[in-house]
Amino acid sequence: MNAADPQGGRPGDLPVLLPFALPKDRAAARLRPAHLWLLTGLALVAVPAWAQGGTAALSPLEVVIKWAPLLLTGFAFNVAISLMAMAIGTVAGIGLGLAMLAEGRILPRLAWCATQVFRNVPWLVLLFFVMFLVPFQITVFGIRVPLPDWVKATFGFSLPVMANVAEIVRGAVRSVPNTQWEAAESLAFTRRQTMWRIILPQCAKRMLPPWMNVYSLIAMATVQASIVGVTEMLTLTAQVHAAEGGRPELFAPLYGFALLCFFLYCYPIDRFTAALERRFETR
Amino acid sequence: MIATIQAWFQQLYETTGFNFTVFYDPYDWDRYVAGLRMTLLLGISTILASLVIGAVGALLQSGPSRVLRALVNGFVVVFRNTPPLVQIFFFYFGLGTLLPDIRSADGLRAPILSNVQWAIISLSLFAGAFNVEIFRSGIEAVPRTTVEAAEALGYTRFKAYRYVVLPLALRVCLPALNNNLINLLKTTTLAYAIAVPETLYAVKQIWSESQNVLEMMLVLLATYAVLVGVLVWIMHRWERTLRIPGYGR
């Protein structure tokens, strides 16, 4: 970078735009705890307002409180599915990412194709794919292993995670300066040693923020499992609504509660990701 | 020509058992095309609406009004951190049932907004929340001096935004925008959950009637691969056309 050039660009560049950079203090949308309390307070005031008269039926707020333990169990199940999908997807994704970076012709091509397919197909379509085409039980060495719906759903969610993690790995490895490779080579490291001992340790911290973004997305995607018949929070929400007599004014508070749960889970992750991004910012 | 293709797929079914009904049964074909048309309608309308939401939101977010800024921030934070499927349910079931009904042409009671319209609204808001952030990052890359120059030429705040800031910001944030719009096209499948007859819905109907799950799955995967591929191609072309000479590579 040319210190004399106030725009910080290369000579010959038009001084039209500053180089793209995330602003330091405004990397994420700002919502302070005070706003959160305000919103919660508004919700608490607004929800009972929907209650229609003082009939025997419970007010929407009472319904939500009454069923909250069941709904939160469902939410815990969503979290469990997302954690398992993330674990499987990360391991597979690192393998796929390294396959894309491997030497040779065929392996990187195949890995690239797999990554593109699993990244570009809608997650719901992948979920349908796994739910309908994977049998409900498999036979390993003569032992029949049943595969319940939620296991298949977890597997279905780990496919897009795999593809996204593979891209993250590839991007991070590509962002390590060539000189690192050359220095390792001059010290007589083999290619595998270079990758595992020199390149990947440097990548780890760069991969953390995008990896957490993927986790946030997969946590929010787990509700799609309700479409293919896995019992999780959204399925339970619909059942609770039916159990309370299917009153239309209950829809908004019940789904609002689901929104709130996911918000309270994902928002801290989002803030933490933004903080890490600032922390690991190069330049 | 069409008859040959139909005959070939009919023969494929009789000889190998691969039953691609969509390619020889006109009824299934019509359903598939109708689903594809619905996906395109959802995709195009939500892309346009979310771009407008993003541009307006970014304008308000950099505006002088504290209340509007706080509202936009709250909107972005909430819509980015909650599942789009729950958002769709919240809008369609939650708000849709609270709105008053209207009488349709044949005297039946009908909701004010149909499921297709609710799907478009909630998907646009979801993608729009991401677009606000993307546009804002682009706007912040426009130098203050450029805005000052525009003001010196007598542009009002809105006109400077419309004619100077937004066109420059758009070019900066185009790669991030590409990603989000492609994501949006994939998210349209969620409209399946409120019975919008888009591609996934139509294909599901076909495979439950014809019992050809594997074949229809392949058609579905190929359809989305092509749709996403076309969008990527269009956006890359647009990116190249809008490129600022002398900037970047």
Question: How would you describe this structure to a colleague?
Answer:
- The complex is a heterodimer of chains A (283) and B (249).
- With 283 residues, chain A is an all-alpha fold.
- Chain A contains nine helices and two strands.
- A two-stranded antiparallel sheet of chain A has the order 1-2.
- Chain B has 249 residues and is an all-alpha fold.
- Chain B is built from nine helices and two strands.
- In chain B, β1 (101-103) and β2 (109-111) form a beta hairpin.
- At the A-B interface, α4, α7 and α9 of A face α3, α4, α5, α7 and α9 of B.
What does the main sheet of chain B amount to?
A: 2 strands, antiparallel
Instruction: Tell me the total number of β-strands of chain B.
Output: 2
Q: Strands across the major sheet of chain A, in which order?
A: 1-2
The parts of chain B where pLDDT drops under 50 for at least 5 residues are: none
Largest interface: A-B, 53 and 54 residues
- Give average pLDDT of chain B, whole number: 87
**Total strand segments of chain A:** 2
Q: Which class of secondary structure composition applies to the elements of chain A? A: mainly alpha
SSE diagram, text form:
The complex is a heterodimer of chains A (283) and B (249).
Chain A: H1 33-49, H2 60-101, H3 106-120, H4 123-133, E1 137-140, E2 143-146, H5 149-174, H6 178-186, H7 191-221, H8 233-243, H9 251-279
Antiparallel strand pairs in A: 1-2
Helix pairs in contact in A: 2-3, 2-5, 2-7, 2-8, 2-9, 3-5, 4-5, 5-7, 6-7, 7-9, 8-9
Chain B: H1 2-16, H2 26-61, H3 66-80, H4 84-95, E1 101-103, E2 109-111, H5 115-140, H6 144-152, H7 157-187, H8 199-210, H9 213-242
Antiparallel strand pairs in B: 1-2
